[in-house]
Each structure stands twice: as C-alpha cells, then as structure tokens.
Amino acid sequence: MPTWGWIVIGIAAAVVIAAVALAALRTRRSRELHGRFGDEYDRVAADAPSRREAEAELRDRERRHDDLDLRPLDRNDRERFRVRWEDVQARFVDDPAGSVGEADGLIQEVMRARGYPVDDFESRAADLSVDHGDVVENYRAAHGIAVAHERGKAGTEELRHAIRHYRALFDSLVEHADRQEVKS
C-alpha cells in the first residue's frame, strides 16, 4: 500500500477515535448533570428544543450558582427559622391560605439569609435546582398550588400538599446549611 494510503487510514482512525472520545465525554457530562439536577434535568430537557440546549441551560445555572455568595445559616438563624416554621404549620388549621403565603415568604427569607437572590420565582427555582435538585420540584408544586388558590382553583387539601412541599424545601435549605457549617 502506498504511503498516502496509510496516511488516509491514520487520519480516518484519528477522526473515529476523536468522535468516540467526544461522545463518551458528552455522555459522562449528561450523567453528571442528571445526577446533580435529578428530576429538574428531565423537566428542563422536556421543555428545551434539544438535549444540548437543555444541558447548556443547566450548565448556565451552575455558573450562575458558582458566582453566588452562598453561606450557611448560623445556629441562631436556623433555630429562629425552625420556630417560625412550626408557627406556620400550627396556623394552618385556622388559616390554610395564610399559612401557605407565610411558608412561601419564610422560604424566601431563608434563601435571602443563605445568600440566594430572590428576584422572581423562576430565578429562585433555577438557583435552588443546583444544590437542591431533589426538592426544587416540591417548590414548583407548592408555588403552583398557591397560584391556583389565588385563582379560586385549589382547596384546603391542595393547600395542605403545598405546605408539605414547602416543608421539604425548608428542611433541605436548613439541613444543607447545617451540613455546610459542619464542613467549615
């Protein structure tokens, strides 16, 4: 075989190896994103025109998250927030809708104390999804129920579910702060 034939075979082999390596890298990165974001990965992928665009959105969230000045709650703040959460739950019996509103407000206060921006709901959910991908869907569900109630389309049972969803996020935010303090 002439030399140019070997060169062509070598170039073709290098292209195939590069393509396989690139595919393996993309698969690994997809798995990492799915592992970090959980169900949020699936939600974003379902809403995006392509998997590549969905993953770009999730990587953008990671970059934005890395730029945040997140901090753990100190012990006094954690305890104060826990006592306030217990009050929110206790008031549910007499004022379910008011409790849901208070729960949402308390979540925003905890987020603010941790260093998250609280501009608008979608930004809050996106920022939370990076560290709290396992419960951000709870936040979306609770918010959806609160909005439905404002429109007269959610009753007491749905509001009870909203409180449970908010509780999952509250616990995650406060416990995550506990874990961060222990690492420090």
Written description of the protein model:
The protein is an all-alpha fold and 184 residues long. The chain has two domains: 3-67; 75-183, no CATH class. It has eight helices and no strands. It has helices at residues 3-37, 39-47, 51-67, 75-91, 96-114, 121-131, 136-150, 156-183. Helix 1 (3-37) packs across helix 2 (39-47) and helix 7 packs antiparallel against helix 8. The longest helix has 35 residues, at 3-37. The model is unreliable at 180-184 (pLDDT under 50).
Question: Tell me about the biggest sheet?
Answer: none
Low-pLDDT runs of 5+ residues are: 180-184
- Report the principal-axis shape: elongated
The helix content is: over 70%
Output the structural class. Answer: mainly alpha
Number of strands: 0
Rounded average pLDDT: 89
Strand content: under 5%
Q: What is the count of DSSP helices, taking H or I runs of 4+ residues?
A: 8
Count of individual domains = 2
Order of helices and strands: HHHHHHHH
Output the radius of gyration. Answer: 23 Å
What is the CA-CA span between the terminal residues?
A: 65 Å
